[in-house]
Amino acid sequence: MDAVKVGLLGLGTVGGGTVTVLRRNAEEITRRAGRGISITHAAARDLSKPRNCDTTGIELTTDAEEVVSNPETEIVVELIGGDTLASEMVMKAIDNGKHVVTANKALIAKHGNEIFAAAQKKGVMVAFEAAVAGGIPIIKAIREGLAGNQIQWLAGIINGTGNFILTEMRDKGRDFDEVLKEAQQLGYAEADPTFDVEGIDAAHKLTILASIAFGIPLQFDAVFTEGISKITREDVAYAEELGYRIKHLGLTRRSNGGVELRVHPTLIPERRLLANVDGVMNAVLVMGDAVGPTMYYGAGAGAEPTASAVVADLVDVVRVLTSDPENRVPHLAFQANRLSDMPILDMTQVQTAYYLRMQAEDKPGVLAEVTRILGDSGISIEAIIQKEPLPGSDKANIIMLTHRVEERSMNEAIAAIESLPVIHGEVTRIRMETLNAD
Ligand code: NAP
Ligand code: HSE
């Protein structure tokens, strides 16, 4: 049988990696898919740019539309990024009856509901394993491997750039900006790296994971999102002193009132496996009612790790090209007409424990005032340390760990603490999770 012809949009980090992996492993891939997979057409912005892959035999163009409209190709792989042109091209490809593979989490998180509806109508597949956690087959694991479970919660390090920055800051004391530059050079970061450091990229991925875990529509706008840009080296060191690591987590949990959907820096006990996932590696811990906790670990970004997931999707699409569209694995794991309308909880209703750091005047009675405010708000303290003023400052650092409390009460307490004349600047708040198997 002839090889399946594929049109590729984008020849950057992931596009180049995909061409390389498809060429290098062609024989094995053909044995797995039952047919060869051949990229015949590809689009990029600048055809004179040197590429990290061999483009021999691929017809190149700067016009993405040419690729999605080419009658020879059966599958379009979208690796341009962003959610404007990518969205337009994916919708056109679907309209032209082509199957789609994409690594674009922004696209799926923001436009997935319409894209899947259009694909369902046309009877084509849209596969997006590479959109979450790079090379880790986490979507397949939850959608298929854990299909017998009620997923209770999942928590993951789902941005490689952010984890790389936090690890380098902790292990080598390096500066945030310098490590971010290196992540960009290594091809880990998004075209706009604020997506990585402000948690937007992780929020895109969490949106997708929550839908697949709980069978709810994609709701990117409902994700509470906080990045790592305000984490200081001192916070990293104080957390370690207290037996914790700071990790940037995406966390979603099903509770009676609805679904928690949040991305933020989090203190995790240092003995947890997740606390020891370093560098560009990602990991997702999933709690199923039948299986208990399972954890998935691997490279979260980079050319070939991401290509690994793109190519796996291509193989899946080729395997089911001819199967009945009504009986394919549903895009969001649950049948499209059986999605649940479970509400997403407002962040003020979510309960967590907290790490608090505040700069205080170094005089008697300050601690008593702070603990009184916390006590009045029903917040109990688990640990407290006071640090000498840092060089060049006359303010002491007070660091506290609290027990679990609703975010609403913590917001009120922090506002009251910040209004004390003996407290200077903002109170740093980092949420804590024990990630126990309960
Ligand atoms: P990238 O290196 O910036 O590559 C983007 C490619 O798209 C480039 O080849 C670029 O052409 C091409 N392109 C941009 N605008 C175009 C246009 N108007 N017409 C035709 N081609 C155009 O990006 P990437 O890192 O490979 O990421 C691609 C996608 O994968 C994104 O959605 C990203 O979020 C996702 N992703 C990336 C990683 C990773 O580790 N990098 C991991 C998982 C998922 P030129 O090369 O000529 O500029
Ligand atoms: N910029 C993303 C990250 C790429 O660093 O995780 C992988 O999705």
The figure for the number of domains is: 3
The total beta strand count reads 17
- Calculate the mean pLDDT score and round it: 96
Percentage of residues in DSSP E strands:
25-35%
Under CATH, the homologous superfamily of the largest domain reads NAD(P)-binding Rossmann-like Domain
CATH topology of the largest domain: Rossmann fold
Looking at the overall shape, the CATH architecture of the largest domain is: 3-Layer(aba) Sandwich
Are there runs of 5+ residues with pLDDT below 50, and where? none
Report the helical percentage.
25-40%
Which small molecules are bound? NADP nicotinamide-adenine-dinucleotide phosphate, L-homoserine
Helical/strand content category: alpha/beta
- Based on CA atoms alone, the radius of gyration comes out at 24 Å
Please identify the top-level CATH class of the largest domain. Alpha Beta
Termini separation (Å)? 51 Å
Largest sheet: 11 strands, mixed
Number of helices: 14
Shape: elongated
Describe the 3D structure.
The chain is of the alpha/beta class. The mean pLDDT is 96. It has helices at residues 13-24, 26-33, 64-69, 85-95, 105-122, 138-145, 160-172, 176-185, 194-197, 200-214, 233-241, 303-320, 366-376, 407-418; strands at residues 4-9, 37-43, 59-61, 75-78, 99-102, 126-127, 151-157, 224-225, 244-255, 258-269, 281-288, 292-299, 351-361, 381-387, 395-402, 405-406, 423-432. NADP nicotinamide-adenine-dinucleotide phosphate binds next to helix 1.
